[in-house]
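Justification of computing resources. Each target in the renewal requires a structure prediction run like the one illustrated here; the chain below, 262 residues long, is used simply to show the kind of job we budget for.
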Amino acid sequence: MTVKFDVILLAGNRPEGEILSQNAGTSCKALVPIAGKPMLYYPLTTLLEHPHINHIWILHQDVHAFDNDNILAPMTKDPRVIMHKSGAGISSSIAALINQEDSLLCPLMVTTGDNVLLSSAMIDDFSDAAAGHDVAVAMVESEILLAQYPQSQRTWLKFKGGKWSGANMFWLGERDKISPLLEFWQSIEQDRKKGLKIIGAFGLPLLLASLLRLITLPDALKKVGKKFGVDAKLVAMPQAQACIDVDKPADIILTESILKAQ
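Resulting structure tokens:
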């Protein structure tokens, strides 16, 4: 893909608080140290170095959250980086940004500040596969992850043909098409770690098809997309590291070991 696109980088705190930042004594999760650098440093560096990314919109409840960090402060002053105040919810914050900022380019990619292992290859693979679709979701199949990192514990969505875990990369196309989907996501956002609740929110037939392993996840995502009038695609990521984000202390240990090996 050669067309430039914007990225929304979610770096705020959950309303219920962040265990990792409490343990580390930092004001927010994005400042939790990973191998001696704040967590946000890693995905932000990768995004800034990618040639096809135009602007990076960092969403945080406090737009001055990184002003006093010696590593992040200079990075947020880059002309391609825009700090934007977020609300309490992820989907509502994204929707507000899309609706408020005409300068935000669509289509765009959404990723998270705890996506420490994000790489240029992942961005290329995802954006190439997602281009031309209204919505795309990056995921990793369990066999790919567990073959390389059997100790990693993820939330799995179980469907015909395999189990899948999210890779914290999303593709959003035209503004008018994705707005209804973002509105719906607000109603189930609190259950984002509960696979069956998310599937059940899209209707009993899809829930039963999932439980009985009668449908693959790519086909299920297409059906969900049709419900909202969008062309939705699952992007199966080949990199095991794509679904390893940093949510708990064990994730820090695993992520730092991977960084050291790299």
